[in-house]
Amino acid sequence: MTAAPGIFLSRSLIKTLKNLQNAKFKKEVLKTMAVVLRLKRTGARNNSCFRIVALDKRSTRDGKAIEELGFYDPRHKDEKCDLERAQYWLSVGAQPSDTVKAIIKRAQDGIKLSDKVKPKKPSKKAIAKLKAEKEAKAAPKAEEKAAE
What we know:
alpha+beta; CATH 3.30.1320.10; 5 helices; 5 strands
């Protein structure tokens, strides 16, 4: 391998460049590269939307992605994920974040995010009211037992 006049290439650099031309070496580099599947934030302030991307582990949250795999919109309860590419990245050793792992699982099961319904949690006032009613019912029973 030759360089332009005036440019010095060390022997190790020349060897590395030759190895990069080898397809097998490229696959090994890809397997050892720290790739993560995570969410990249897009959208305006207070109107967030996310893209599911494959990124180098060292890059920032919104850094340049290796590949975009889908999107996730929590406000409109909409998500889409390219399962074939996600499985590829997982097979070469990419680590998914917890949220991306959940999105991939829902996509594999065919469950839409909009179909998922959270159970209603009673308010603090409602909990206090139920507690007071239980105590009121328990009080006469306790008095009857004490009278006997």
